[in-house]
Design a protein that fits this description.
The complex is a heterodimer of chains A (134) and B (145).
Chain A lengths: L6 E5 L6 H17 L4 E3 L2 H5 L3 H9 L1 E6 L5 H8 L3 E7 H8 L10 H25 L1
Parallel strand pairs in A: 1-2, 1-3, 3-4
Chain B lengths: L7 E5 L6 H17 L4 E4 L1 H6 L2 H9 L2 E5 L5 H9 L5 E4 H6 L14 H33 L1
Parallel strand pairs in B: 1-2, 1-3, 3-4
Helix pairs in contact in B: 1-6
Classes of the chains: A alpha/beta (134), B alpha/beta (145).
Chain lengths: 134, 145
C-alpha cells in the first residue's frame, strides 16, 4: 500500500490524565496490531514545530483524531495545520459509553485496557471505512 | 504560596512514533507517581504547544525538565520557545546509547527489560529534579540573607 492510501491518526499525548493514557494505548493497538499497514500515526509536537513531512501527511491524508480531554488538542492542531478530519474519537465519551475507566495514568488496569481495546476497534473500523473511500 | 516554590515541571514528548517516546512517557509517570510525587507536576506537551496559558505560565515561573524520545527534541525546543530554557533535558535515545545490548521494540507493551530501562531513565529525571530543587533552595537562602 502506498503512503497515499493510508489514513493518518493523530492522538493527544494526555500526560496529565489517566484517560490520556487510554488515548495513547488505543492508537498503539491500531498501529502495531490491528491496522499496521493502513495507518500513519502522526506525532503532534513535530507537526506543530512545522516539520514538513508531518504537515504534508496531515494535508494529504484523511485524518482521524483521538482526544483525551475537553481541550481537544489533537483536533485543534490538525485544523490549525490544514488537515481534513474525517473521523473523531473523544475518549471521555467512549469511557461513558462503555462504562469503563482506567485505574491510573501509569497502570490502566483491566478496565482501562478493555476501554483502550474498544476504542482501538472503533478506530480500526473508521480506518476500514475511509480506506474504501480513498 | 511557599509550597508551590518546590515544584518542578516535567515536560515529556508525546512520543507516538517510536518506542523511545513510550519510554519518555513511562519514565515521566514513574517520577510523578513513585520517585518524586510531591515535588513534580507534568505539563501536557500538546496542550502547552497549542497555547495552554496555564501550562506556559507555570513553565515560565518554575523550573522544567524536558524528556525527549528522540533527537528532534520537541519538548525541549517547545519549552524554550514558549516559556524559557528548561533547567535540564533528558533525551531517551542518548540514554539508550549507553545500554549497548538493548533494542526497544514496542510502543504498546514494554518488556521486562524495557521497563527496567524506563526505570533507569526515571532515575535520571529524578536526579535532575533534585538538582533543580537544590538550586531553588540555594536561591531562597541567598534571598533571605
Amino acid at each position: 500500500m502506498t503512503e497515499r492510501g493510508k489514513i493518518a491518526v493523530v492522538a493527544c499525548a494526555g500526560m496529565d490524565k489517566p484517560i490520556g493514557s487510554v488515548t495513547s494505548a488505543s492508537v498503539f493497538k491500531v498501529v502495531e496490531t490491528l491496522r499496521p499497514q493502513e495507518v500513519e500515526l502522526v506525532c503532534i509536537p513535530p507537526l506543530l514545530a512545522g516539520v514538513s513531512t508531518y504537515s504534508e501527511l496531515i494535508k494529504n491524508l484523511p485524518v482521524i483524531t483521538v482526544d483525551g480531554c475537553a481541550e481537544r488538542c489533537a483536533t485543534k492542531l490538525v485544523v490549525r495545520s490544514g488537515g481534513k478530519i474525517r473521523g473523531r474519537i473523544f475518549v471521555p465519551d467512549s469511557a461513558k459509553k462503555y462504562n469503563l475507566l482506567p485505574e491510573s495514568a501509569s497502570h490502566l488496569g483491566p478496565n482501562g485496557e478493555k476501554l483502550a481495546e474498544n476504542i482501538a476497534e472503533e478506530i480500526a473500523s473508521m480506518v476500514d471505512t475511509l480506506t474504501k473511500e480513498t | 504560596m511557599t509550597l508551590a516554590k518546590w515544584k518542578v515541571g516535567i515536560v515529556s514528548c508525546s512520543g507516538e512514533e517510536i518506542p523511545e517516546g513510550t519510554i519518555s512517557r513511562v519514565a515521566t509517570r514513574l517520577v510523578l507517581e513513585k520517585l518524586r510525587p510531591d515535588e513534580t507536576v507534568t505539563i501536557c506537551l500538546p496542550l502547552f504547544l497549542a497555547g495552554g496559558e496555564g501550562e506556559r505560565t507555570f513553565a515560565k515561573l518554575f523550573p522544567t525538565i524536558t524528556v525527549d524520545g528522540c533527537e528532534k527534541r520537541c519538548a525541549e525546543i517547545g519549552t524554550e520557545k514558549y516559556s524559557g530554557k528548561p533547567f535540564a533535558t533528558v533525551v531517551v535515545s542518548d540514554v539508550l546509547k549507553k545500554c549497548h545490548n538493548l533494542v526497544l521494540k514496542s510502543r504498546d507493551k514494554l518488556s521486562a527489560e524495557e521497563w527496567k530501562f524506563a526505570e533507569k531513565v526515571a532515575a535520571e529525571i529524578a536526579k535532575k529534579v533534585d538538582e533543580a530543587l537544590s538550586r531553588q533552595n540555594e536561591q531562597l537562602r541567598s534571598e533571605k540573607q
